[in-house]
Amino acid sequence: MTTVTPSRRTGVDSPAPSGRSRSSRRSGDGVAGYLFLSPWIIGILLLTLGPMLASLYLSFTDYDLFNRPQWIGLDNYQRMLTDARWLTSVRVTALYVVLAVPIKLACALAVAMLLNNDRRGRSFYRAAFYGPSLIGASVSLAIVWKAMFSDDAVVDRLLQTVGVNVGGWAGNPDFSLLMLVLLAAWQLGAPMVIFLAGLKQVPRELHEAAEVDGAGAWRRFRSITLPMISPVIFFNLLLETINSFQVFTSAYIVGGPNGQPAGTTLFYTVYLFDRGFGDYRMGYASAMAWMLLAGVGLVTLLLFRTARGWVYYSGDRQ
């Protein structure tokens, strides 16, 4: 017996859809959904997952792009521990991350707090500070930055006016890494915008109440602003730390494949590129890539573990 349902338009009873028609409709919707997702699925299989599995296999082989891979087990990973240049690249990259990330985040937060106030031209200044981030890690930017910090260039002449004579940062082992740190801090636009969004969520009533109680600007910043935006700080810290481990273009342009001067710009990614595409040791380069992945994963896990003690969520410590 067929059940009927009243039609809203005509008031005439119409047959209700059967269970089979509903099932076929759901099946059709599922097929349509997978068709729309198919470009992403094909892309992640062919361009991400496939190359990752191939590099994992090559990391256990001796492969030079011209001959068939020869299985050597863990030899590539063991060789890293005695590779002086690999150890140097690890040290340089770790030092860069430790210096660049906090300096960049501190500058981004300071600028965000200045731009968070209502003042004339605020939109212009926001765009101006965000502009350098749109350039990204381009070759042209690295070339210009290296030229600015070369001997007797713009930065060197400005420092000479105040009695500081460095003699060029790019060729000085004591300042070459700091030059790249300043380049990272200059591109503070992305974390600045995220900090601005977080500062907008801090209730003004809290600051007004603290000000009535006699709390100064620093006390309000330390006791109200920082705890309230701690999730945003953690988010920026996580992103910038991961990105700092992958810096390549600026370091390669400034120091070349050998990390000049004196190996102070031999970043991990630069050495990986040199072994893979300079010496054609693709097996060794693949092992280096997986060691980098393991290192970044370990640092990320450590950040999540330590975040429980200082990140503030919805009135409770997590």
Describe what this molecule looks like in 3D.
The chain is mainly α and 318 residues long. The chain has a single domain (76-317), classed as MetI-like fold (Orthogonal Bundle), CATH 1.10.3720.10. It is built from 14 helices and six strands. Strands 1-2 form a two-stranded antiparallel ribbon. The protein has a two-stranded antiparallel ribbon with strand order 3-4. A two-stranded antiparallel ribbon has the order 5-6. A hairpin with a 6-residue loop joins strand 1 and strand 2. Helix 3 crosses helix 8 (189-200), helix 3 packs antiparallel against helix 11 (230-245) and helix 4 (122-135) packs across helix 8. The chain is globular, with a radius of gyration of 28 Å. The relative contact order is 0.11.
**Strand percentage:** under 5%
Mean pLDDT: 86
According to CATH, what is the class? Mainly Alpha
Strand order of the largest sheet: 1-2
Per-chain topology:
Elements: E1 4-6, E2 13-15, H1 19-58, E3 61-62, E4 70-71, H2 75-80, H3 84-115, H4 122-135, H5 139-148, H6 154-160, H7 176-186, H8 189-200, H9 204-212, H10 217-228, H11 230-245, H12 249-255, H13 268-278, H14 282-307, E5 312-313, E6 316-317
Antiparallel strand pairs: 1-2, 3-4, 5-6
Helix pairs in contact: 3-7, 3-8, 3-11, 3-13, 4-8, 5-12, 8-11, 11-14, 13-14
Protein traits:
mainly alpha; 318 residues; two-stranded antiparallel ribbon; 6 strands; 14 helices; MetI-like fold
